[in-house]
UniProtKB/TrEMBL annotation:
Superkingdom of source: Bacteria
Source organism of this protein record: Halobacillus andaensis
GO biological process: L-serine biosynthetic process
Record function comment: Catalyzes the reversible oxidation of 3-phospho-D-glycerate to 3-phosphonooxypyruvate, the first step of the phosphorylated L-serine biosynthesis pathway. Also catalyzes the reversible oxidation of 2-hydroxyglutarate to 2-oxoglutarate.
Organism lineage: Bacteria, Bacillati, Bacillota, Bacilli, Bacillales
PANTHER family: D-ISOMER SPECIFIC 2-HYDROXYACID DEHYDROGENASE FAMILY PROTEIN (AFU_ORTHOLOGUE AFUA_6G10090)
Protein's recorded name: D-3-phosphoglycerate dehydrogenase
Length: 527
């Protein structure tokens, strides 16, 4: 049974998939104190939030069972992604479900800002019939500058064109061609700022966008321009905006988001020219139902080990690629695990080569799984698909992935090479049609071993009697040999024995094996 904690208000209709799942216990409480949250998270397998709950490192560290954090919405700036990755917790979001609602909210703010609707309404509610004070401006023929032309930016553009506005947009991913297709003008950030009568931002809040609209960039804008922020507080620098409105450079602003929320007694709210809503962009029945459903399904997929649609802290993989790779997952992990268990020294570099059927597939997820298999020897079950790369990079281990046309006669081949400060070891494996995974090469020795169960790897001299002596000694210790493979470079030279046995080999047995004539090294492992 998976325990899923929902700590922000979510649409009950939207989370039906969770409520109806027989393997899920959903606990929904949006009024938890910090202490209560720490207690609740300690026994939860998943956490689902919106933008209120601050998912800090402290919270994640109190959650030994936590496997996934779901964000019922787009922005993940309230989640400590590094901490989640460090602890192998997958973060997923629901980026599609609230696009329309937020774009519509932006349009509502745009029109309200142009026509002073909130201010006029406020006066009228106080029984003051003011008309002269609230003369607005038309949108027609005005230029809307859009910074951040993703899902919401694009939807806002289409709606603004319906108002006969001219739209100019900047986004590092927006090409001339894409802009033409969307019917907007493509501009640099400077051009957008210089031409906008209304400027609206729709980027995530990241290092590059923090205070993107600041004292200097506001200087580039037309006198009397207006600014909207329905994306994230902090993209527009609040002090700079306050000053620009005060000195008349900027005629007004519409804000749905603030650097600190809830924004109570905020200086910007004291300005007549500023209209505001309390982070309502995604607050519609439809959006909330959409995001709650999307995130519920993704969270359950993570818990059940399925493919994740919207991962935030690991690369997303198309279902098509996933289907091609899935059969290789066990092979990649076992090869990595086998090799790291027989390699001595401090790990420095991992090279993974793919050939045959894997030549034209995006094999990054397989490399991640190989690295997980390798690192398990050192950090146990704490390493998983999410943190394998980061853990390796934190430890200064270099990971390389290469495609090779040499198949060595196999239809598919995965080769892992490990470099430590003491040695370099290589293993190759394949998926045999209908027969499953096989290790086909260990260093220079060709073998044929199923990578599972208890294994013994013995380096020895290719001399008569060596194999017999190993068999007798194992028998003395009641260790039954299931399979045995021998590989050698040349007759009488160096050789390797790989045995699969029915139970784990005890230390004294391993020691005695090491003392047998012609045996040079004995390594025991369990896959
Ligand atoms: N007010 C609210 O309730 C809501 C706010 N949001 C926020 O709206 C924002 C946009 O959301 P979506 O359109 O769904 O995201 P998106 O990911 O589809 O689009 C964001 C775009 O910003 C662009 N971008 C990144 N850095 C940039 C930079 N330095 N300059 C210009 N563009 C840059 C990206 O290339 C991307 O195209 C996010 O911050 C999200 O959290 C989203 C939903 C509701
Ligand atoms: O999806 C987003 O990024 C939002 O800002 C929506 O936030 P909310 O879920 O309404 O707290």
């Amino acid at each position: 049974m998976y325990r899923v904690l929902i700590s922000d208000p979510l649409s009950e209709d939207g989370i039906k998939p969770l409520l109806e799942a027989s393997d899920v216990e959903a606990v929904m409480d949006a009024s938890l104190s910090h202490e209560e949250l720490l207690k609740e998270i300690s026994t939860s397998d998943a956490l689902i939030v919106r933008s209120q709950t601050q998912v800090t490192r402290e919270l994640i560290e109190h959650a030994p069972q936590l496997k996934v954090i779901g964000r019922a919405g787009v922005g993940v700036d309230n989640i400590d992604l590094d901490a989640a990755t460090d602890h192998g917790v997958v973060v997923v979001n629901a980026p599609d479900g609230n696009t329309i609602s937020t774009a519509e909210h932006t349009m509502a703010m745009l029109m309200s800002l142009a026509r002073n609707i909130p201010q006029a309404y406020h006066q009228l509610k106080q029984n003051r019939w003011e008309r002269k004070k609230f003369v607005g401006v038309e949108l027609k023929n005005k230029t809307l500058g859009i910074v951040g032309f993703g899902r919401i930016g694009n939807e806002v553009a289409q709606r603004a064109k319906g108002h006969r506005m001219k739209v100019i947009a900047f986004d590092p991913f927006l090409t001339e061609e894409k802009a033409n297709k969307a019917g907007v003008q493509h501009g640099t950030l400077e051009e957008v700022l210089q031409q906008a009568d209304f400027l609206t931002v729709h980027t995530p809040l990241i290092e590059k966008t923090k205070h993107l609209i600041n004292k200097e960039t506001i200087q580039l804008m037309k006198p009397g321009a207006r600014i909207l922020n329905c994306a994230r507080g902090g993209i527009v620098e609040e002090d700079a905006l306050y000053e620009a409105i005060e000195n008349g450079k900027i005629a007004g602003a519409a804000l749905d988001v603030f650097e600190e929320e809830p924004a109570i007694d905020h200086p910007l709210l004291s300005l007549e020219e500023v209209i505001a809503t309390p982070h309502l962009g995604a607050s519609t029945v439809e959006a909330q139902e959409n995001v709650a459903t999307d995130v519920s399904l993704d969270v359950m997929d993570v818990l059940r080990g399925g493919a994740v649609k919207h991962p935030v802290n690991m690369p997303s993989v198309s279902s098509e690629v996933m289907e091609q790779l899935a059969p290789y997952f066990t092979l990649a992990e076992k090869l990595g695990s086998f090799l790291s268990n027989v390699t001595d020294g401090a790990l420095e570099k991992v090279n993974v080569y793919y050939s045959g059927d894997l030549l034209d597939v995006d094999t990054t997820p397989l490399t991640r799984i190989s690295v997980k298999g390798i690192l398990k020897r050192y950090i146990g079950e704490r390493v998983n698909d999410v943190n394998a790369y980061k853990t390796a990079s934190d430890k200064g281990i270099v990971i390389n992935e290469q495609k090779s046309t040499s198949t060595k006669g196999f239809t598919n081949l995965v080769t892992i090479e490990i470099e430590t400060d003491q040695e370099k070891r290589t293993i190759s494996g394949t998926l045999l049609n209908g027969l499953g995974a096989r290790i086909v090469k260990l260093d220079e020795y060709s073998i044929d071993v199923v990578p599972e169960g208890h294994l013994i790897v013995i380096h020895h001299k290719d001399q008569p009697g060596a194999i017999g002596r190993v068999g007798s000694l194992l028998a003395e210790h009641h260790v039954n040999i299931a399979t045995m493979q021998v590989g050698r470079t040349n007759q009488g030279g160096e050789a390797v024995m790989v045995l699969t046995v029915d139970k784990a080999v005890e230390e004294d047995c391993q020691e005695q094996l090491g003392g047998v004539a012609d045996i040079q090294q004995v390594q025991c492992l369990t896959l």
